[in-house]
Structures are given as structure tokens and as C-alpha cells.
Amino acid sequence: MQGIDSKDKVIQDLFYALSGGSPGNLGVITHVTLKVHKDEDHCKSYGFRKMILYNREKLKALLKLLVDMGVQNVSADYDVVVTMVSKREQALDPNGQPAIAVFAQWANLKGGSQEFDGKTDIWFQRIRDIVGPIDPDTETDGQHPLSELSSHWLFPIDREFELPYLKRTTVTKAPAKYLKDKE
């Protein structure tokens, strides 16, 4: 990718999005929903949460999965986040090696008693194939209330400074198909 000097407007947009977001972060947003959800309206929600030691090939495979989900325009019920966790935030090993945090959920946004089997779902299975089995004592792979699944996305860490936390994120309008074609 050439960056800001490229003649391709999409490449310029991607460069701008990558340089303006948090360092090292790339997100593929396929759906955005801002609404308060009640557990009873979204029964049978399903979630997956796992942290693994950083591995370049696994990170690439997870990012490819996100692009594939965008290309296939999966249901808005799915929400998947892949993020890097530095050694200062949460250590997985005594040497402080960085980690990859994977959060995925199927939210049953239509409500009712819609059936969903996360153990056989293709997207959850692809995640499992990449990151390996979970530790049931510290990780999640199962049906849980939506409020509980949402709480898994929070890291219980102390902040170094008591000043307000401001985060800037820039996104691109490039469709997932464009990213897939550039693989």
C-alpha cells in the first residue's frame, strides 16, 4: 500500500483511516447498532472470548475472517472484535509477550426463541480453528445473557493517570470486498 501519495482514492482513504486510529489497530466495521438491549428480548445469545499469545499468522487469519464476514455481509447478529493487548495491560505470560484478544457474539437481535448453535456455526468454528480450544475457567464459548457477553469486552485494569481518557478513531468507507481483493 503506497499511502497518501497513491492516486487511488480508496488507498488514500485507507491510509488516512489507519494513520488516524489507535496505533496498530485496523478494524473492519460491517454493522453499527446503537440501541439499549434487554436480556429478555435477546434470549439464547451466544458468545466467545479468548486471549492468545501474539502470533503473526493467527492475527492475519483472524483479520482475514473479519474481511470474509464483511464480504459475505453476515447478519447484524454477529459482532467480532480482534484486538492487540500490550504486556502492560494484561500479561498472559511471565515474559510480558503481547496477546491477541478475540471477542465474538451472536446477539439474537430479532429476539424470540430463534435457535442458534454456536458450537456448529461456521463463523465461531473458524475462530476456534484459528485460536484453539478455550479454558472454561477463564474464557467463554457458550450461550449467555447479552448483558454478560457485553461485559466481556471490558478490561478491568487500573489507569496510570486519573486524567480523562480520549480516544480517536478514524474509519474508511472502503467496502470489505476491496480489502479482500487486495490480499
Task: Describe, in plain words, how this protein is organized in 3D.
By secondary structure, the protein is an alpha+beta fold. The protein has two domains: about 1-25, no CATH class; about 30-155, 2-Layer Sandwich (Alpha-Beta Plaits), CATH 3.30.70. It has helices at about 10-20, 55-70, 120-130, 145-150, 175-180; strands spanning about 45-55, 80-85, 100-105, 140-145. Strands 2-3-1-4 form a four-stranded antiparallel beta sheet, covered by helices on one side. Helix 2 runs antiparallel to helix 3. The relative contact order is 0.24.
Main β-sheet: number of strands, strand sense, barrel status? 4 strands, antiparallel
Tally of individual domains = 2
Shape: globular
Rg computed from alpha carbons, rounded to a whole number of angstroms: 17 Å
State the helical fraction.
25-40%
Number of helices: 5
Query: What number is the mean pLDDT?
Result: 77
| Unreliable segments of 5+ consecutive residues | none
Structural class: alpha+beta
Known CATH architecture of the largest domain? 2-Layer Sandwich
CATH topology of the largest domain: Alpha-Beta Plaits
Order of H and E elements: HEHEEHEHH
Main sheet strand line-up? 2-3-1-4
DSSP strand tally: 4
In the CATH hierarchy, what is the class of the largest domain? Alpha Beta
- Which percent band covers the strand fraction? 15-25%
Cα end-to-end separation: 11 Å
